[in-house]
Write a structure and sequence with these properties.
Layout (H helix, E strand, L loop, with lengths): L1 E7 L2 E7 L24 E2 L7 E2 L5 E4 L4 E6 L6 E2 L4 E7 L2 E6 L4 E6 L6 E2 L4 E6 L2
Antiparallel strand pairs: 1-2, 2-3, 4-10, 5-12, 6-8, 6-11, 7-10, 8-9, 10-12
């Protein structure tokens, strides 16, 4: 068995792979080209969020895949509808992520430099 760390789309995984002996044969030829991965594949520790104090009632998610460029608001900050909460770098363009309504930041679930997929909850708010 050998252990490897693999990064796929910005997500880091620790993987253990079983090696077969050079002369071993397989009775089912359809399995010859398939990798053998142990069942204990676990994602490595994700990067720690900038701050977090529980989940809020209002989720602000990524509308597209990208990289967290800058975090404008922290837990406890009041925000107005349309105000920038953080900035994502999407296709080499800085794209603001804005508050959908007035509220108070309850959690920031990402850190600068994190790769995020569309639909990932970035920040949560509580109503004021």
């Amino acid at each position: 068995m050998k252990s490897y760390t693999i990064t796929v789309n910005g997500n880091v995984y620790d993987v253990t792979v079983e090696e077969k002996a050079a002369g071993s044969s397989t009775s089912n030829l359809s399995k010859v080209n398939q990798p053998v991965v142990s069942k204990s594949v676990q994602p490595a520790q994700p990067s720690k969020p900038v701050s977090s104090s529980g989940e809020g009632d209002i989720a602000i998610d990524a509308k597209a895949s990208g990289k967290v460029f800058k975090i404008e608001k922290n837990v406890g900050d009041k925000v107005k509808k349309g105000e920038t909460v953080l900035i994502l770098e999407i296709m080499k363009m800085e794209t603001p992520v804005v508050a959908p309504q007035d509220g108070v930041v309850a959690s920031v679930n990402v850190a600068v430099g994190d790769q995020v997929e569309a639909g990932k909850v970035l920040v949560t708010l509580n109503e004021e």
